[in-house]
Amino acid sequence: MWVSILTSSICRLCRAIAVICLLVGAAARADESPDVSWPDVPPAQRAEMAFELRMRVICETKSDAAGEKFLRQEFARDPRPAVKAFMVRMYFYGKDWGMPLLVDAKRGRQLAEEAIAEGSAAALDVYGRAIAEGLVEGKSRSEAIAFIRRGVERGVPRCMARLGWYHILGWNVPVNIPRGIHLVRRAAELGNPGGLVDIAAAYEEGTAAPGASPPLALEFYRQAWRFNSAKGRDALKRLAATNENAKLLYATELARTANGGRWMMLKRGKEYLVALESMNPTFPDAMTELGLAHAEGYYAKRDLPLARKLLGAAVAGGSQDARFVLARLRLEGIGCTREPAALEEIHTMADAGNVRAAGYYGYVHYWGASVVAGLKRDEATAFRYIRLAAQKGDLFAVHNLAVCYANGVGTREDYLLAAKLYWESFEQGESSGSEKARRYLNFVKE
Q: Which of 222, 230, 178, 227 is nearest to 200 (CA)?
């Protein structure tokens, strides 16, 4: 009984979120941020991206102490804006990076103003946040908002996420839920899903302007996870211990992660699918993941009749992902005669915004052209759709996009973006991503 009630509740929630997300476009302004497509950034910010990535790689693969040593050496050797901006972050928030000895708010203020004057976009966010949190004496909240707005205008994802969160809270800006969600989702699409976690926490704790909403908290944590946020994943896991809605969403997203990044999940994928199947769910997203698993046979025994039954039920419940999987099975002739016309159906879904369809449509135009008789390799199409899917957090697409930038598939070679994407793949479980990120980072000049 509770499964039926739970499924109905979650489905209504997801439809409500979809409506909100359709409305947020009206809140966007043409001058809000530069027209830059993730994973790229405005040219002036590439040096800051490169330096931050170097710091993350050193801290993760060596130690925080090694990262601090590298930062101090670079600051002494060449205190360029990118290095200053990172040093500002350590002066205010060094404890978060395991570098507490660097914390010095007075020095942070001086250096932040120097970096901003020299054109640093990253420093706008750190300094605005520090002022907002009361770490800078003599500065007001309105000044904090002004710095953060300047960051939004420069296209800084962290500033977009922060300003969006403030609109949800009504913190020194007017309460504007559609605009807040728009900014936070835009930030997530540009590589920073932290705002989704902040909004979820606000709805969980009751600090959002509309008040507490546990269902909205769950959905925003889930969205954050879909943009590869470990904090979103961990929050759902925490809530799953006491909340049945969270338990089902957590099990569904684990299965989705396994299905989406299967080469990364060989040890845990079966465990995830078994846990979800034991719940006998009628939630469309859950049935989609189980249907896909039984169709492919990676983590569950291949059972095409069961797969089609689950996927058909999911389609009836409104799942576009299930519709894509069924079209893919027809295209590849899995359990049926191949239907080349199914490719156009997948194309239509990709253009309509289905993440899995976009990633697959791009993939098949470069690596999987043999799937469709007569389909010619098309690097430009492959790159375009792979990037669309990767921007929405698709693990397989993120990896494939790294390959595109590393080898110039459908785009120029860009070793910085290749390194960034390989590192993101590593953070999501692909063990080879670390070595590849370091290799390509060696070719990057700031």
A: 222
